[in-house]
Amino acid sequence: MLDSIAIHSTRFTELEADYIKKDVVAVFTPTIFDLVKQKIDYVSKYVISEILVGFYLTAYVVAMKEKKQRKFHIDCEFTESSLAAIHCSCCNMECDGMPCGHIFYVLNILRAEKLPKCCIDSRWTMGAKSAFPCIQKQAART
Ligand SMILES: [Zn+2]
């Protein structure tokens, strides 16, 4: 059973996402980092509309400030007190292998300093660079 919690949206405004950027820059190749950074920069465009708290799972409902009817559900799984997995209803991670701005928004709220493993596609990491010397630019999604 999930309980709904009232949110004071002003609490989550002006998010900088600086701490996660330090981890992201170390994880992804420079080309992918440029794409991921754009998604991190989107965090200021979102607001929390609802948080549903369960025992192992917390669901954040995130909306765009400009289009509040457009909502995304971000599910966070916790083991003990740490974030084990995060999933967004936009499925950007599953399609592009890169976390979406909604995920970064929630990671910022959680003050996460590291990307959860589920948000790291090994294709785009520094470790994969030697295996794939020529990384093609991904077409921007509209
Ligand atoms: Zn998303």
TrEMBL record:
<keyword id="KW-0863">Zinc-finger</keyword>
<dbReference type="GO" id="GO:0005634">
    <property type="term" value="C:nucleus"/>
</dbReference>
<keyword id="KW-0862">Zinc</keyword>
<dbReference type="GO" id="GO:0006355">
    <property type="term" value="P:regulation of DNA-templated transcription"/>
</dbReference>
<dbReference type="GO" id="GO:0008270">
    <property type="term" value="F:zinc ion binding"/>
</dbReference>
<feature type="domain" description="SWIM-type">
    <location>
        <begin position="72"/>
        <end position="111"/>
    </location>
</feature>
<keyword id="KW-0472">Membrane</keyword>
<comment type="function">
    <text>Putative transcription activator involved in regulating light control of development.</text>
</comment>
<keyword id="KW-1133">Transmembrane helix</keyword>
<feature type="transmembrane region" description="Helical">
    <location>
        <begin position="43"/>
        <end position="63"/>
    </location>
</feature>
<keyword id="KW-0479">Metal-binding</keyword>
<dbReference type="InterPro" id="IPR007527">
    <property type="entry name" value="Znf_SWIM"/>
</dbReference>
<dbReference type="InterPro" id="IPR031052">
    <property type="entry name" value="FHY3/FAR1"/>
</dbReference>
<keyword id="KW-0539">Nucleus</keyword>
<keyword id="KW-0812">Transmembrane</keyword>
<comment type="similarity">
    <text>Belongs to the FHY3/FAR1 family.</text>
</comment>
<protein>
    <recommendedName>
        <fullName>Protein FAR1-RELATED SEQUENCE</fullName>
    </recommendedName>
</protein>
